[in-house]
Amino acid sequence: MRKIQVQGVHHITLVGADRQTSIDFWEGLLGMPFVFEQPNLDNPGEGHLYFDPGDGRLITIFTNEDRTPDNRRTPTDPGCVHHLAFNLSRAVFSQVLERLKARGIANSGVKDRGFMDSIYFKDPLGLLIELACYKFEPPVGCTHAQVMLEAHKTRVAAGDDHIMEVHLADAIETLVARTQGTLSDRSGAGGA
Predict the structure, then answer these.
(1) 3-state secondary structure labels for all residues of the chain
(2) Cα(149)–Cα(170) distance, rounded to whole angstroms?
(3) Mean pLDDT calculated for residue range 162-171
(4) Is 107 within 8 Å of 97 (Cβ atoms)?
(5) Is 149 helix (H, G, I), strand (E, B) or coil?
(6) ∠ at Cα 92 (84, 21), nearest 5°?
(7) 117, 95 in Cβ contact below 8 A?
(8) Using an 8 Å Cβ cutoff, are 47 and 20 in contact?
(9) Nearest to residue 175, comparing CAs of 155, 153, 146, 154?
């Protein structure tokens, strides 16, 4: 049977409360430009706000002025969204705790995930948000996913429980060897 091959996330749509709560959070806190607005074409009583998360794709929010924010944790039952994660540069990530504190937003503190660092907090409607920062940059022409695949293979071969920085470094070396040519013998120029 033939696949329906996807080529990335087109957009994610969330059910929001009022319009201003969405603008204050998505653009005001997370810096996502508010780029488009129209009625919800399936429910004209709602607004449909569009935000750019930084990669040209979209986060969209259905708003209704009759709904008010409720920051109790959203359901985590099977089929529900557990959290949304957004990529940050190391420079911005290093400022997150200070900036959340300045706004009085409770958070998890920095969590070391082996291949990335993460900070978690809830949006005004109780959805868990993760701000993540990779511990590596992929080689030119490669993606983070390709590095993760190679690091996973290295981790499994080593019998390690989770991906660590050594696996990332080895994965990057493997990808460079695979994608970049050299005139020398790759068996260890310069020693060990």
Answers:
(1) CCCCCCCCCCEEEEECCCHHHHHHHHHHHCCCCEEEEEEECCEEEEEEEEECCCCCCEEEEEECCCCCCCCCCCCCCCCCCCEEEEECCHHHHCCHHHHHHHCCCCCCCCEECCCEEEEEEECCCCCEEEEEEECCCCCCCCCHHHHHHHHHHHHHHHCCCCCCHHHHHHHHHHHHHHHCCCCCCCCCCCCC
(2) 12
(3) 97
(4) yes
(5) helix
(6) 50
(7) no
(8) no
(9) 146
Query: 187: pLDDT confidence band, cut at 50, 70 and 90?
Result: low
Taken as a whole, the chain contains a residue count of: 192
Cα gap 94→119, rounded to integer Å: 11
* CATH topology for the 72-135 domain: 2,3-Dihydroxybiphenyl 1,2-Dioxygenase; domain 1 (3.10.180)
**pLDDT over threshold 60, residue 191:** no
* C-alpha–C-alpha distance, residues 135 and 113, integer Å: 9
63 token code pair = 């708003």
- Give the relative orientation of helices 144-158 and 165-179 as an angle to the nearest 10 degrees: 120
Predicted local distance difference test score (pLDDT) of residue 186: 65
Arithmetic mean of pLDDT over the chain = 95
Q: Is the dihedral of CA 16, 21, 26, 32 positive or negative?
A: positive
Architecture of domain 12-69: Roll (3.10)
**Residue ranges of the domains in the chain?**
12-69, 72-135, 144-179
Beta strand 111-112 with 43-51 is unpaired
